[in-house]
Amino acid sequence: MSDGMSNDSPIGIHDLSFATTEFVLPHAALAEYNGTEIGKYHIGIGQQSMSVPAADEDIVTMAAAAAAPLVARHGSDRIRTVLFATESSIDQAKSAGVYVHSLLGLPSAGRVVELKQACYGATAALQFAIGLVRRDPSQQVLVIASDVSKYELDSPGEATQGAAAVAMLVGTDPALVRIEEPSGLFTADVMDFWRPNYRDAALVDGQESISAYLQAVEGSWKDYGEQGGRPLEDFAAFCYHQPFTKMAYKAHRHLLNYSGHDTDKDAVERAVGASTAYNAVIGNSYTASVYLGLAALLDRTRDLDGRPVGFLSYGSGSVAEFFSGTVVPGYRRHLRDAEHRRAIARRTPLDYAGYRRLHERSFPTDGGDHPTPAQTGGPFRLAGLRDHKRLYEAR
Ligand code: CAA
What is the Å distance from ligand 1's center to 103 Cα? Predict the structure, then answer.
């Protein structure tokens, strides 16, 4: 403890930035290929397009691109911990965060660790970060959520892929969102979505995963109430985990029904609509998804000063947490909405064949020298694999 701040100082998200991929596949191209009526994608699941990583992009390059602007704005002197949440890990032992630490030139006097519990991991990271800052308010924690969502070609999950990273700087007196106690927690052992170590693509029981998610909404909301949480009427808006944006609407209607409220269509739209803008064009970004929802909500809403927002983080398997955060007055001065819009607009559209070629790519496992084609226009790239080592570089 070095600066004498009281343990009661608010703690939360001081800055937030996201990055996504070089390429994008419009759902119209997927629908044309597989003969699906486009309304199923645009309306049924609420998705317009999905981000697709270039051959030289992965969770590390996206994470470093998301976090670099935070370090540029605030410096790294106070960052002693990096928590990297992902469920599309690139190594069974080494944390992806260590590569990011190196690419960003963070101080060697620091700790870096990777966390996993499906899409819930970044919320665990955020809560653990708050604990660390509570212990020493002079420190900041860099929380990163980065994922590539990949299902089998020609499977029902294929339309719900995507990729993005969100980086958040967590500290005292945050400029964006004060994270509050209590949290409502829920864990249940279900096999709705999983990825064994020997597979690249996830396995999923689609309908089971939707009901497991809705069960978790109930369970975490019930616990939130029992822990003395806010009444539903307090919240100006909600950020749900969005495997596809329609899920946020399903989840919110379920919460309203469960808690004995009307499910008025306009009220549901007001509660979740703004949070779906980025996810609808990026697709599922697993751990990053709920915080992409927060980015969209903050970037696109003008009147959140001092107002509570509800967060529902769900990770298959399953763990969920409902918690609240109050938006800090003046938050709009600290947003990165122009950069966020650029990250989405700069993506190059792929045709179906181009997407399929990227989907089918994987590194040989022979320990040879395997450079990647230079495709990304982003600030960092995965240059290749040599002697079983991933080689990253700043561009
Ligand atoms: N016009 C408008 N709507 C249409 C339509 C049309 N022409 N055709 C179909 N629809 C609607 C359907 O009525 C349905 O809507 P409702 O759910 O509101 O009834 C919607 O489109 C989807 O149709 P289906 O259920 O028939 O679609 P599907 O069987 O192909 O599967 C899915 C959809 C289960 C989401 C599948 O994409 C999938 O398995 N995705 C991966 C798993 C997933 O995302 N699960 C979410 C919860 S788990 C989680 O959140 C963790 C995570 O990140 C994975």
Answer: 38
Q: Is 13 touching ligand 1 by the criterion CB < 6 Å?
A: no
What is the architecture, at CATH level 2, of domain 178-329?
3-Layer(aba) Sandwich (3.40)
Q: Is the CB of 39 under 6 A from ligand 1?
A: yes
pLDDT, tens digit, 9 for 90 and up, residues 83-142 = 999 999 999 999 999 999 999 999 999 999 999 999 999 999 999 999 999 999 999 999
Using CA atoms of 382, 385, 388, 394 in order, give the dihedral in degrees to the nearest 10: -30
Give CA angle at 255 (46, 300), nearest 5°. Answer: 50
Structurally, at CATH architecture level, domain 2-176+335-394 sits in 3-Layer(aba) Sandwich (3.40)
Q: Alpha carbon 354 to chain centroid distance?
A: 25
Strand partners, 239: 311
The CA 320 to ligand 1 mean position distance, Å, reads: 20
Active-site option among 119, 239, 252, 340: 119
